[in-house]
Amino acid sequence: MFNQSTFTTQPFGKCLDGYVTSDHEFYLLDLSDYDHVIKKKIAHVEDVKLASDKNRIFECVSEIKLDWESHLMYQLSVRSDNDEPTIRAYATTSSRTGSNCIHSNRSWFKFNNVETFEKEQVNILERINEEGIGFVGGSMILSCSGGEPVIERGNYNEFTVEKCSELPPYVRPQFPLRNTTLLITLPCEDVLNRKYSINALYYNGTFYQYDLESGKFKVENPITCSTECDKTFSFTGTGFNDNCKIIPYLEGHRLRVFVHQNRCLYELVWNQEGTQIVLVKHLDWICEILSIVRLDNFGLLVSSSADKTIDCFAYTPQLFNIQNSKGEGELRKLPIKGSLTYLYSPISKTIILKDNNNQYNKVTSISEIEQVKSEKIKEIFNEEEYLEKLKKDSEFDVYVPKLVTPSMSCVNVVGARITKAYQIKEEKYNDFEIIAGLRCRDHMDKLGEIISKDYIELEPEDFANYLGAPIMYKSSWSDILEYKNHIKDMKDCKKSSKQISVACIGSGFMSNSGVDLTSTAFIGIVGCKELTTTESTSTNDIMNDTNNTRKEYEILFDDQEFKVESTSIIANDSLADGNPVIIENVRPGTWKWITTNKEKNYVDGGGIDNYLTAQIIAIHSDCYDEITKNPNLFKYSDDIYRELEGEATKTDYYPDPVNEDGWYLMKFGVGVDAGVASFFDLKYYNNMEAFGLPFKQKSLLEKAFKLSYGSEWSNYLSKEMQKLHYPSKMAAPYGIITSSGYGDGCYACLFKKSEAGDVIAVRMIFA
Asked: What's the pLDDT band for 550 if we cut at 50, 70, 90?
């Protein structure tokens, strides 16, 4: 169960949250009146068959998006009746398919003040690619994998989407994040008199407003956003699923828009010409803002982290003014701990806390907050003085390498103060030396041969002069030597932070993380060595030298065969530390494998691929003809999906066969987290010698540190798959690797015995 509120944007006058019971019933909780909580059923797994895989464990309502714009118009309109209209909403319910894998199911439903939902009011969208991003003018906007948008107008009983054909073609970003197409609320002088929807489409880096009369997006003169106050700001964030949180805020009929992003608070305002959105920063001096909750028109509840504690403030912004002055705003430090899980109940004017047990407890009220002494922003914060200090604290310089060799890559950087950076290519760490850093000489026994004779010991703030530099570092809590990253910036662009943001940019991906310079074991800025051809030889180079000679296992693969020498087969994800299954008493010899595919148009991740494996069966060659002549070989019953009772080990299986063909079911499923699964002879699993590669003398660095998160075995297989452009099947010594159906998960594993009692066939079922 997620602890934070499941609503991306809370509707005005409401406090809503998502909830799931142990019986897999999904509810929407209306906490608008703390003393009268209304529970509205959204869905039940058994009723609406949310699951497309029967072995999923349903966990939470992870996100609900309500058409709060239509709801606001109802609240502000002059009306004679008290009947609240039905409002459309969109929910994402999550289920766990493995130890580290969460799968999302989508549904849309109608919201009103009834105590419960009728079953037919809930519409479950099974296996759709599109993900709901919000509503404009009563219509739902969705996008496929965060990209090209489509619109669902709710005019039919069936879910029907239309392309937004008026928009220009989608431009895929350099680094594919989860969502690059968003709905962002724009400020509005009078929400009752407007031509466009309050929500605008953020698409290809610009805003497109939705014309309420034509039902189309306005494509002439799209609106841009000026981010002069923070060059690193991005609506889509810099990491996976790192989108901003929008907080609409009413002053009469004027709608102001606050944004929580990068642990800072901003406001969106129009420039004086009304042609561009400008970013304005609030509460500049408060670091690490963790959450924002709207308190009606009283202000905002702000939780922030400081000195290992979480403080809580009530912030009442200064009334809107064209100068964007903030000095007359008020701030109250509240005598309560800050939290990510606060909600505001507008009818009872109460702040409530959602705890880890999904209980909602009153913490304080608006009347109690009003009793807390307030301070004017101008009394506690000198913006002019702050900006002067910030200017000095934000000074930086860019790393320029003295030498560039083929072992170094130059990458383009977006959303940062630098435009390019340098990185060590994979496995080329021996071709570099450490030229500057922190505490590197404290590890001479491990780093001695790569520390430059001109090495410079730095202070944490000095790293601001090396933005874009390639680095090696080891955290105090990890045994991994990280070597693929570059310095993206100082944290919050401030030298005084004593922390750096590091990133790794590859082909179609980017990873970001932070490094505390005061606590890391050591960190070094590196430069290229001058190398001879013989010195610059990596493991990959040696492996490539052997690729011209075909191995026995590759020849066997051509005939869909592999060898087994021991009496145990392991079934698992060969590229990740998943949950393996071990089948014992296996007959040694040559085994043949066979697969089947299932026709589906949509698969996890948004792609279309009809070649993914639905099942794989490996059979001992002695019994292959006899077993494969069964016309129902690939059929199976729902009985293979069982809830495990009691304890079990990876070798345990159910004593009775699941069908008349004599297939036995392992008690554990095969956990998959990298999209592939495999059968291997346990004797040779994770054994590099099985590949027949030449011996390579390890450097001091390779002897002293672990240089990757996976084993040498899994890393080699991963590189081979990448080199072969991720085939659906791949050869491996004493085994076979296949794609794991239509996504990650936990999959059934079965085996078949001979009359003598030894295992002669093994099987995995993905779909």
From this structure: confident
pTM for this model (two decimals): 0.75
- 544 contacts 427 by C-beta, under 8 angstroms: no
Predicted local confidence at residue 764, as pLDDT: 93
Q: Write the single-letter amino acid at 472.
A: M
Q: Which tokens in the block code for residue 50?
A: 């949310």
The whole-angstrom separation of Cα 615 and Cα 635 is: 10
CB 619 within 8 A of CB 627: yes
Determine the straight-line distance between the first and last CA of the chain, rounded to whole angstroms: 27
Instruction: Flag whether pLDDT at 52 surpasses 50.
Output: no
- Cβ burial of 739 (10 Å; 0-12, 13-18, 19+) is buried
Cβ atoms within 10 Å of 552's Cβ, excluding its own = 12
Q: How far is CA 210 from the centre of its chain?
A: 29
Beta bridge partners of 291: 303
Residues 646, 667: Cα–Cα separation, whole Å: 10
Q: Which three-class secondary structure state does DSSP give residue 150?
A: strand
d(CA 135, CA 11): 12
Helix (H) or strand (E) holding 721: helix 712-723
Query: By C-alpha distance, which of 318, 311, 307, 317 is closest to 290?
Result: 311
Q: Mean pLDDT of all residues in the chain?
A: 84
Residues for the chain: how many in total?
767
Contacts of residue 758, Cβ cutoff 8 Å, sequence gap at least 6: 567, 585, 586, 587
Q: Are strands 162-163 and 499-506 parallel, antiparallel or unpaired?
A: unpaired
d(CA 260, CA 262): 7
pLDDT at 147 over 90: no
53 φ/ψ angles, rounded to the nearest 5 degrees: -120, 130
Which one, of 235, 233, 252, 253, lies nearest residue 244 by Cα?
Answer: 235
Give domain limits for the chain: 1-127, 129-282, 288-391, 408-528, 539-765
Contact between 431 and 420 under an 8 Å Cβ cutoff? The reply is no
Tokens of 435: 């030229």
What pLDDT does 55 receive? 45
- As a whole number of angstroms, the distance between CA 468 and CA 421 comes to 4
Token pair of 144 as six digits: 């496929």
CA atoms within 13 A on the CB side of 576: 18
The amino acid at residue 278 is V
User: What pLDDT digit, counting tens, does each position of 468-495 carry?
Assistant: 999 999 988 888 899 999 999 999 899 9
CA–CA dist 69, 89 (Å, integer)? 11
* pLDDT: which is higher, 728 or 501: 501
d(CA 702, CA 707): 7
SS3 content of the chain, % helix, strand, coil (to 5): 15, 40, 45
pLDDT, tens digit, 9 for 90 and up, residues 350-378: 999 988 777 899 999 999 999 999 999 99
In terms of Cα–Cα distance, which of 492, 68, 497, 491 is closest to 281?
492
Strand-pairing partners, residue 527, are 433
Closest C-alpha to 531, from 408, 416, 633: 408
Beta-sheet pairing, 663-665 with 486-490: unpaired
Looking at the DSSP bridge assignments, the partners of residue 93 are 61, 105
Q: Distance between CA 172 and CA 628 in Å, rounded?
A: 45
Beta-strand ranges (E) seen in 99-195 are 101-111, 123-125, 130-136, 139-144, 149-152, 162-163, 182-185
Asked if 474 contacts 518 with a C-beta cutoff of 8 angstroms, the reply is: no
Whether residue 751 has pLDDT greater than 80: yes
